[in-house]
Write a structure and sequence with these properties.
Helix content: 40-55%
Mean pLDDT: 79
Number of strands: 5
Low-confidence stretches: 109-113
Radius of gyration: 24 Å
Structural class: alpha+beta
Largest sheet: 5 strands, antiparallel
Shape: elongated
């Protein structure tokens, strides 16, 4: 009995972490508050699915296997199941949940929709070689160029800047200059200008697309 209890706890706990690990690698986890708390909560939710599958296996395989052999087989299959189910379902479930959120918010006229993923990913996704101008919160220039790659890992704000080749970009615009450009209505018809602010990372980014 003790072995069965221990095996069950280890299996469910390990499977829950696998669920979280795969979801995190696929960028389907958006931490809310403390990252460790979000990890535990996410793992516990998936552990309900894993534990249900574990019980299902025990019930249907007990005629063919017994005692420790049954436990070992159920443990291994459950761990494999948790990996595959996460790989196949976490992204579709994420998109479905935000789709349903969007419908709910729209129904109550609180919002027209909600975008899946992080603000960082939404800011940069779908754009190739974005013209970017980067500053700190004190408005000091810290870099400019085309953003050719960026991290999609939640909480990471790493990106690659490829320097401009044009002579006009030899000196980076000051913050006031780029702010004036972004706020000029005359530019709105010809360019899409967006501003990203991250207080924690001390980072402001302006992007310009024709």
């Amino acid at each position: 009995m003790l072995n069965k209890i221990i095996a069950t706890l280890i299996t469910v706990g390990g499977a829950g972490y696998i669920n979280y690990f795969v979801a995190n690698q696929l960028g389907a986890v958006e931490p809310i508050g403390d990252k460790k708390t979000s990890q535990i909560a996410y793992s516990l939710i998936w552990s309900v699915v894993d534990f249900s599958f574990f019980l299902f296996l025990q019930q249907n395989l007990k005629e063919y296997f017994h005692n420790e052999t049954l436990l070992i087989i159920c443990m291994l299959i459950t761990l494999a199941f948790s990996f595959l189910i996460s790989l196949l379902l976490v992204k579709p479930l994420q998109k479905l949940s935000y789709f349903l959120y969007g419908i709910t918010f729209k129904a109550y006229k609180e919002n027209n929709g909600i975008n899946p993923g992080s603000v960082w990913d939404d800011f940069l996704s779908g754009q190739n070689e974005i013209e970017a101008y980067c500053y700190d919160l004190q408005h000091n220039p810290i870099g400019q160029g085309f953003i050719t790659a960026y991290s999609k890992i939640p909480g990471k704000h790493d990106f690659v800047l490829q320097p401009f080749k044009e002579e006009k970009h030899k000196k980076q615009w000051s913050y006031d200059e780029i702010e004036e450009i972004s706020q000029n209505p005359g530019n709105w018809d010809n360019f899409t200008i967006r501003q990203y602010i991250n207080v924690q990372e001390n980072l402001i980014i302006f992007t310009i697309r024709k």
